[in-house]
Amino acid sequence: MARGAAPVLCLDVGMGTNDLLLWQPDERGENQIHLVLPSTTRILAREIAETTRRGLGLVLRGELMGGGPSAKAVRRHLEAGLPVYAEPTAAQTLDDDLDEVLGLGVTLVDESEAARLAKQGHAEVRMGDLRLPELLESLEKLGAPRPEGLAVAVQDHGQAPAGVSDRVFRFRLWAKLLEQSRRLADLFYLPEEVPSELTRMQAVVRLVDGRLPLVVADTGPPALWGAHLAAAAPRVLAVNYGNGHTLASLVEGDELSGLFEHHTRLLSPEGMAAYLRRFAAGEHLGEDVFRDGGHGALPVGAPFALEEVALSVTGPGRVRFRKLSLEQREASMHGDMMITGCWGLLEGYRARLLA
After folding, report:
1. Domain ends where: 127, 148, 177?
2. pLDDT in tens, 101-142
3. Is residue 262 part of a domain?
């Protein structure tokens, strides 16, 4: 099979769901294999909750991953008076600062001690955003072709220095990256290119461990690229209403202009419409967004009229904004909005490995 025509597995790892597209060159869009699965962090939260119910000690092994439900489950385990042991890489799921993790009551152990504890009857939970061998085995059992390439998106706040909030640090990273390049393709990384600060992406690289050609990205750029594809317009105000974060940018061809990031749960339809109008006007919103509980905003290169661009929205949180006082289109790719980000991942994979 020619390199450009090989099946590619695209996995968009979220807080609520893991969205999967197994792209095959000989299938049309609607017939491509696509799945919406429970997020890894929710699966692990259930495993941890069962350990708590059984009254067992917990041993966290493996890699740094997205927290949310799994991190809350660990805290509830500690609150129940039960011990938690963790390898340092797994412990960073709870906090980048291991002193903070120790302060929660977690005991840090090395690999050999973790293995010994698991043999003594403590429940072992394998941390990590990706369970690639199990996923490939499941797809094979369903009759799917084996992928010859892999694209993975995870939301990466980066490892903030001591005393710097995650919100501030994540947006500093956005500003730095977009200052270097506004091209969407440049926000997708080959394994050896992942910046050292992007520790969650680094963990994905270690989990894949060279099994497949790999491209990794934050969840934002694939969603924006997918929303642009779905709109099929040259200039698109793309908005991804995720379960956790809302991200917006003006996408012009293959480039981003400006960026807005907030927490979905803190936004109302009225407030979001006001932000988008100010964003289009070229206002500097960063401080206002941060004070409002969000991450920040970078202004667009030049003001634009909202009526002159397509407003393309995606993400599981979009239902909250159906009464937005602006004309908007749902970014449904081949009839399925939930895998819009996967189609963006496929574009990133093609741009980095097949160009």
Report:
1. 127
2. 999 999 999 999 999 999 999 999 999 999 999 999 999 999
3. yes
